[in-house]
Amino acid sequence: MPSISKPVPAITPEMREFFDGARAGRLMVQKCGGCGMLRFPAYELCSKCNSTTSSWVPVSGRGEVFSFNIMHQVYHPAFAAEVPYAVVVVELEEGCKFVSNLIGVKPHEIKCGMPVEVMFEKLSDEVSIPKFRLRSAH
Amino acid sequence: MPSAKKRKNVTAMDLRAQCAIAGLGQTRMGKNFDHPGPVGFAAEAVNLALDDAGLARSDLDGLLVNPGITWFNNPMASYSLQQAMGLRNLRLTATMNLGGATAAAMVMHAAQSIAAGMADCVACVFADAPLRPPSPSKGKGEGSASAYGFAQGLNAHYGLFGVNSQYAFVAQRHMYRYGTTNDHLGAIAVAERAWANSNPEAQFFDTPMSIADYHASRWVVEPFHLYDCCLVSNGGLAVIVTSAERAKNLKRPPVYILGMAQGHPGGDPMETLVSGAPIAKTTAFKMAGISLSDVDFCEIYDCYTFTVLVTLEDYGFCKKGEGGPFVATGAIGPGGSLPVNTGGGQLSSFYMWGMTPVSEAIVQIRGDGGRRQVPKHEVGLVSGNGGILATHSTLVLGSHP
């Protein structure tokens, strides 16, 4: 265990249902009440139809690596022992994108288009967060 | 219809060559501590620009300010500078921020106001002072005084920090979609360095760089090496915009504003891989009455090598996705068919946001480029870019109205 832990996201009112879902092992995204477009993270209004109504819905958690980078600089002491590490952008089958980490793949073996699925990492009793791992493509 | 007739008199096209840049003021750049903060650099730059134009502070009736990171929390930076410089009775002022697209946007705002009779002589200035003097108690004493991004929440847990990392996502996607490589990005870094080696004011004037040096430079965030990323600089840069008529009677040859426009695409740059250049180009080129073949040289906003590649594609110098092979031909370096970032750009000369490309275009059009002077310099194309391909501004500058 590193002595300094990584930043733990705050459970804000806008994101509560996302964290409730994550604690129960479900990946939740926001669905626009006007046009049905999915989005993440939470926004007050839909960028497509500008509706301010929305609900949270579960999604498959399956997707592909849309893009990624490999971080070499240490911006926070908790990452000092991890550089270089990768941050990925996953595009879900349902269409919205997640910034996350890809577990079990070395940074330099990551490729755009890799099929991935969600998994959850428990940080505390309140906070679990989604990360991704490889899945076999069907 | 009378109202339609009236509108016809104020089309954007009528703004062609109504105004000109009459003065350029540049402080020392890079690791210099000539002023304790950015306001001092801004004031020095404005006074240098006035001297260059042969004007006095009392001639100014407009002041537009783009505060850099060390003072962009000041919501009335232009007023701070007005008071610091003792400017009185201004008719136009604003603190503007479109990120790296601000400099050209300030020139536009000035030119529009002057053409409309609402101001006559406007200073546009960028200044910043993120580097701190060496201090025995604080280690090396270098590096950016504050991060550009605000990492928090989920992204911080995943280790995503800073603007470099966001641009890296977009570049990586361009590589995946179009086959762009680090050799391509490196070609831009090497070309700009070669230009900087002929610019005594460039931070990398004395330091040549090969493609091998580029590849050997440390990774910042893959796919970006250190030399894919812009410099950090202390300094100030100002220009004086006035009417073309007035500029003709001032000290230096006028640099005419032939075309100007903005473009802000919105949406997800990882999806589009397109900047705002196509939107702005339509208006700016129509206003200037030019096509791409009329462009003698380019000063392209270069927070990263990748930004140059995308912007060249978006202006149409090559097809979308072919920016890599295009820059790999050597076209953009000294002696190439399309000189780009002829002072070394923000990668190799100095980082004054959008003022770096604006200032170098003025130097080239006046023929003041010395060893780096391009042979043809009647029409220069200047771009600004802010955010992650979020904001864009284009200027077409020329030596003749």
Provide tags for this entry.
heterodimer; A: 138 residues; mainly beta; six-stranded mixed sheet; 6% helix; B: alpha/beta; nine-stranded mixed sheet; 11 strands
C-alpha-based Rg of chain B, rounded: 20 Å
- Count of helix runs of chain B: 15
Kindly report the spatial arrangement of strands forming the biggest sheet of chain A: 6-5-4-8-9-7
Give, in spatial order, the strands making up the sheet with the most strands of chain B: 3-2-4-7-1-8-11-10-9
Write the element-wise H/E pattern of chain B from the N-terminal end onward.
Answer: HEHEHEHEHHHHEEEHEHHEHHHHEE
Question: What is the typical, i.e. mean, pLDDT of chain A?
Answer: 93
Q: Looking at the structure, what is the overall shape of chain A?
A: globular
Distance from first to last alpha carbon of chain A: 37 Å
Low-pLDDT segments of chain B:
137-152
Helices and strands of chain B: which structural class? alpha/beta
Question: How much strand of chain A?
Answer: 35-45%
Largest sheet of chain B: 9 strands, mixed
Helix fraction of chain A by DSSP (H/I, runs of at least 4)? under 10%
Kindly summarize this structure in a few lines.
The complex is a heterodimer of chains A (138) and B (401). Chain A is mainly beta. Helices cover 6% and strands 38% of the residues of chain A.
